[in-house]
Every structure is written in structure tokens, then in C-alpha cells.
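just leaving the lab so this will be short. what follows is a protein written twice so to speak, once as letters and once as C-alpha cells for the fold. can you read through it and tell me how you think this chain folds. thanks a lot i owe you, the record is right below.

___
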Amino acid sequence: MSGFEALLSETAEAVEVALDSVLSPKPRPGEIARPERLVAAMRHAMLGGGKRLRPALVAASARLFDVTGEEPLMAGLAVECIHGYSLIHDDLPAMDDDDLRRGRPTTHRAFDEATAILAGDALQALAFDLLAQERTHPDPAVRIALVAILARASGLGGMVGGQMLDLAAEGRFGPGGGADEAGVRLIQSMKTGALIAASVAMGGVLGGASATAQEALLRFGESLGFAFQLADDLLDVAGDAASVGKATGKDAAAGKATLVGLMGIDAARARLASLVDEADAALAAFGSEADALREAARFVVLRDR
């Protein structure tokens, strides 16, 4: 097991315990009540599955600056809540219309569409609640910086905007759909890559990284985000639903443009290998201290789900 895989396992365990706590039925100070069905839907979506890659990236980048413990865990939880909300909403009939997620019924199938929408909304709000807490960092300026990074990565100019462009490219809003390679790359950098890059950047913020160090982390995060989506597209083409944990072959069936479809499988695999090299090069100034992040890039490329 690589250093990153060990960190991934350690982080996944800590995230599971922390999510079980923050998604308890008992209201937190300032809350009035927690509806039982809504809590159950949020727990269904968030507990008992997932690699917890994004929280592990927060932890790995924070460790470059000797920051460990509760602070990166809290920031990672916030990112995971945003990721979880996005999956709930992506699976809805109005979006990707999926029945399976992580080998289990999607939230709207296990409950209903209205509950799923509200569960996603509540997870989005919870993410920023977590970042605002002093447990995340004692310095309010650091907490504000974390909020800004996550909000921009997940909102209009990031993940949500990327989903809108993706729907437009599918022709959902009339003629003129479709996307060339540059268009697909833009969609993927927003829809998937932005949150992965933000995870890496947030670890740097927790560690008080210099502007130069943050720029290097940003380059790494962008390469990693691109690699993650490319690997995901390859799994959709070559993987099977049992191992991937969700339906495969849906992109082609829906006529969705992907880089694998535009480039071909062999060229996509070659590009994936070059992205690992680019990610590695971005971390050169950190030396061996960044080996866990380098291993993260290889993990993303070699994963089977």
C-alpha cells in the first residue's frame, strides 16, 4: 500500500466517523429541528461508501506544511458534503437519471425526488457551516479564504456552471448542442476538476502556503482533476457496473461528448499518462515531501471504480 493509499484509508475512516456525528438526528445549536426523513436521506447518500478522495487530498496537501488533525478533516468534510450534494442532484431524473450510485439505489430512488433535492440543498449548506466553525481554523481570515475557494469551485464558475454547460452540450436547450475537444475540456475542468483542485488548494491555505507554493499546488490540482475525469470516462467505456458501482456506457448511449469519444481510447490513455507527468512536475519544488500527492495522481489513473 502506497503512502497515499494509507492516507486515503485513514481519511476515509475519520470522515465516516465525523459524518456520522454531523449528520446525527440531534439539532445543533442554532438549529430548530432536524426532520427524520431528511436526515435519513442525507445519511444514505453520505455514509457507507465513497473513496473520500477529496478529503484525502486536503489532508495530503496540508501535510506538506506539517498541518494534520482536525483542521484538514473539517475542511475535507466540507468538500465531501459539496461532492455528495452534487452526486445527489446529478443522479436526478432532470439531470443524469441514474438508478445506482456506489452499488446502492440513488437517493431519489431510495426516497423520492423532493427529499433528494432537499438532502442535496442541506448538504451544500452544511459544507459552509463546517468551514465557518473555529474548529476548522482559529483564524477567521483563513476560514474566509477556505469558504471563497470552495464557493467558487462549486458554484457558477465551477461545478454548477460546468453541469449547465454539459446539459447544453447534450442539446437539452435546443439545437446548437455538442462540444469539440476544447469545449469538453472546459466542461470537465469546471464540473469535475474545479472541486479536486480546490481540495488541494485548501490544504495549502490551512498550511499558510506562499503564493509560489499555492501556484504549484494549483497546477498539480488542475492536472489531477483532468486526469480524474479522463480516467472516469475510460471506466465508463471499459469498466463494468459491478466494479464501478454505477451504470456504465451511459455517456455513449446519451450521445454525450467525452474526450475518450473524441480522442479514442489509446490516445486518451496516452494523455492520461502525460497528465501524471505534468502533475509530478508541478510538485518538483516540494521534493520528496510531496510523494503522497504524487501517489495520488497514480492512484487516480490506476483506480478501477
